[in-house]
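Replying to the earlier thread about multi-chain prediction with a worked example.

Input:
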Amino acid sequence: MESVTGPPAKMAARREELTPMLSQYFSLTEEYDDALVLFQVGDFYELFCEAAEAAARVCEITLTQREDSTGTYPMAGVPIDNVAPYVETLLGAGYRVAIADQVEDPAEASGLVDRAVTRVVTPGTVVEDELLAAGGNTYLAALAPAPDGEEVGVAFVDVSTGEFRVTSARPTVVQDELNRFAPAEVIAAPDLDHAFDVEGMRTPVPDERFEPSTARERVSAYVATPESVLSGTAELRAAGALLGYAEYTQGVDAGGLAYITRLTRYDPREGMRLDATALRSLEVFENREGGDAHTLLGVVDETSCALGRRELTHWLRRPLLDRERIEARHDAVEELTRLSLVREEARDLLRDVYDVERLVTRVSRGRANARDLRSLKATLDVVPELKAALADVECDALRERRDALDDLADVRGLVGRAIHPEPPIEVTEGGVIREGFDDDLDDLRATERDGREWVADLEASERERTGIDSLKVGYNEVHGYYIEVTNPNLDAVPDDYTRRQTLKNSERFYTPELKRREDEILGAAERADAREYRLFTEVREEVAAAAERVQRVAGVLAELDVLAALAHVAVERDYHRPEFGSEGVHIEAGRHPVVETTQEAFVPNDADLRERPFAVVTGPNMSGKSTYMRQVALVVVLAQVGSFVPARRARLPVTDAVFTRVGASDDIAGGHSTFMREMAELTDILHNATEDSLVLLDEVGRGTSTADGRAIAWAVTEFLDDEVGATTLFATHYHELTRLAGDRPGVQNLHFAVERDGETVTFLHSVAQGAAEASYGVEVARLAGVPGTVIERSRALLEDGLPDEGRETVTLEAFAGGETVQNGHGAANGTSVDGGDDPVDDSGGTDDPDGRIGSSASDSPAVDGVPTTGEGEAASEAAAALEEIRGLSIAAMTPLEALTYLHDLQGRLDGDD
Ligand SMILES: Nc1ncnc2c1ncn2[C@@H]1O[C@H](COP(=O)(O)OP(=O)(O)OP(=O)(O)O)[C@@H](O)[C@H]1O
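Result:
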C-alpha cells in the first residue's frame, strides 16, 4: 500500500507554520500513523494532503484545495451523518481508519476545539451495525509462540459480541483454527517464526503488547486470575495482546471492554477436524462459486434470530466429538420434532429476539440509545414466555437450557419503567424517560406543560381582551413566543404589548407575562432534557452492570433457536436421528442435503462401509459419484453437529476428521499448479488421517500423466488401507484400481450404473456393488458425436492395447507443462496392463531426458499405420502440434474435450481435414 497514512510530508516540512487546527491534525496523524485519520470539522470528517488524495480516489469524493500561509494543499471530507459507507470502502481498500472527534462543545471551547481519536476502525474490530453482517461474526486474532517453539497460542475475539476464545496447539492445528474462524484481522508476536496462511489483514502492533508482563496485566483487567483460565505464556501473550489491541481500537483504557466477560479457553480437539479444504469442497458455508446459495448452512438454517444463526454457524464449523454432548443435542432435537406445537411456538417467540449480544456490547460501551434498551427489553420479555412454552419438556438438554434462562426481571422492570415505549433516536433531546419514573423530571415537564397550555389558551383570551379576531399567537426559534396583529388592527393593540418584530403586513408583540412564561417553559424544557439524559445514562449503566447475565441468556436463546431450527428441518425434510456405534459407517437411503433440494427426483443411496471401509467408486462422468461421496461426509458432519440426517437410517462411528481431496481444484490464483496443490492436500491427509477419520478422494492424480496418476492413486490406496485404516471413498477413472478389491479384504468396489436404450443413456444415479464397465469414456465420446471411425479405433485399442508398445512415444509429460516426472507409460497404454502387472512399474519408458518426443512424427501412436503426406511437411506439422500440446492445460480439460482435441489433431496430422 502506498504510504498515505501517518503525517503528511508537506506538513512535516513546515510544521512550525501550520495553523493550530492543522497542527492538531498533524499530531494525531503522528500518533495514529498506521491509519487514515478522519478529522472532525463541524459536520464533516476531513482528510488532508496525501490522505485526502487517497480517500478521494478510493471513495470517489471531491478533492478541494485549501489555502493558508504554508501554501495550498488538497482536502477531502465526508459527512459525519453518513460516514459508514466511506469507512467500509476504506476498510475494503485495506486501510485502517482513526476517527478523530471533537471532544469539546465548540460553543464552550475558549480557543481551538479539543479533538481526540475516539475509535480506530479496522477490519477485525468493527462494531458499527452498518458494517456488520447480521448473524455473522467478525473476528480479530492474535498469535504468540510458546517458549519451546513447539506450540502456538492463538486468541480470537469478536469485539461486537464479546466472544473471546483462547487455545494453544501445534502450528497445523492452529492453522485449522485460523481457517475455521477466518479472522478479518490478525496480529502476531514479533518472535513468531511460523508462517500462517490467513486472508485477513495483518496488522503490525508494538512489540510490548506481547510482552508477558504487559499481557498479564491486560488479561487481569478482565479475569481475576488469568492462570486459572489460561494455560501457558503463549496463551497469555496472545490473549493479552489481543485485548490490548482491541481496547486501543475502541478508544478505551485497560479493562474498558466490560462486555468481554466470557474469556474461554478451549481445546481444539473437542471438535471434529474440518479444515478449510473440507469446508469448501463440502460447500458448508459457501458454494464452489463463493456464493451462499445452495450450501449446507443455507439448507439447515431455519433459525429465527441472528443469535441463532451465529450459533448454528459455530456448530457447523465445529462438529462435536463427545458422544454424550452430541446425543444430548439429538435428544433435544428429537423431543422438539415430536412436540410440534412447542417447537413452533418457540420459533415464533424467538423471532422477536434482537441481536442482544451486540446490543449489550453497545450498552456497555455507552453507545446504546433508548431504542436499543427497548429492543433489549423486548427480547427479555420473550424469556418468560419461552420458559412457559418449554414448561413440559422432558429431556435433560432442553430442561437444563430452559432452567438456565434468567428472565432478568430487574433489568426488564427497570427499562420498562424508565424508558419511553417509543423513544426518539437522539438521547439528548428529551422524550426518552417515561413519566412517573422521576419526580423532579415530572415537575419540570409539568411546568413546561402548564406554560405551553397557558400559551395555547392565550390566543382566545387576547382576542377577547383586544377584540382583534385575527390575532394570532405563535412561536419561532429566533424570537420565541409572539402575538401577531395585522396592520389594520394595530390601533387596538393594548399598552402592555411590546414590539418584537415587524413584518410586511403585521407586527409581532410580547407581553411581560408571555415573556415570563416563555423563560419558564424554555428553562424547564432545557433542564428536563438534561435530566432525562442523566437518568438515561444511569439506566444504561445499570443495564451494563447486568451485561454478563444478559450474555448468558443470549447464549441459551441462541442454542434453543438452533435446536428448534434443526428439529424444524428434520420434520420438513424428513431427516432421521442418527445412531452411534463402533461398527463403521452404515447409511441407508442417504441423500445429499443440498443437491436433493435442487433436484426433482433425488435417488437415495446406501453406504455400507462396515466390513470394507475403503470404497473405490467408479462410473462415468455425471453419474453421481461426487454427490454420493459428499453426501456420506455431510451425513457424518450433520450427525456430529447434533442434527438429524438426510437418510432413512444412519449408524455411524464418531469421526475425528473429514478430509477431502476433491476435483482438480483450480488454484491458479494461489500460484500453485493444480497438481502441486493436489499433492499438498494429499500429503496432509496421509499424515493426519486416523482410523477414525473419513477421507474423500475424487480423481486423485488427474493433474499429471495417466501413468503417474494411476501409480499415485494405487499407492495412496495401499497406504490408506494398510497404514491408516480410515474410512475412505475414492472416486476414480483409473479403472484398474477396482482390482484392489480382489486382494484386499478392506476394499470394496461401488459403481454408478447407467441404463442404455439404443442411442439414449439414462443416468440412474444409484450406487451398486462392483466395478463399472471400463469403456464409459468411449461411450460418452460416441454420444457426443465423435466420428464412428475414431470410436471403433478407440474400442479396438482398448481391447488390444496401443500398438507398438515399447517404442518411443509422445509422453504425457509434455501435457503437464513439464512439471511431472516422465513415465514411460503413455496416456492410454496403461489400460492394457493386466492383472499381474504392477502399475507403479516404470519400465518401458522413453529415455529422452527432456521428455520430448523421439525421432519423427510417424513414431507417435496416433499416426501409426496412417499414410503421411510427405516427410518434411508432416514433421513440421507434428512439431507445431507438439508445441501446441505443450501449451495445453490438460488438468482444465474434461476427458471429452481432450478426446475431441485429439481427434482434431489427428485430422490435422493426417492432412485430410
Ligand atoms: N442421487 C442422485 N439423484 C439424482 N440426481 C443426482 C444424484 N446424484 C447426482 N445427481 C445429479 O447428477 C449430477 C452429476 O453428479 P456428480 O457431479 O456427483 O457426478 P460425478 O459422477 O461425480 O461426475 P464427474 O465424474 O464428472 O465429477 C449432479 O449435479 C446432480 O444434478
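Residues 664-671, 805-871 have pLDDT under 50 and may be disordered.

Feel free to reuse this layout for your own posts.
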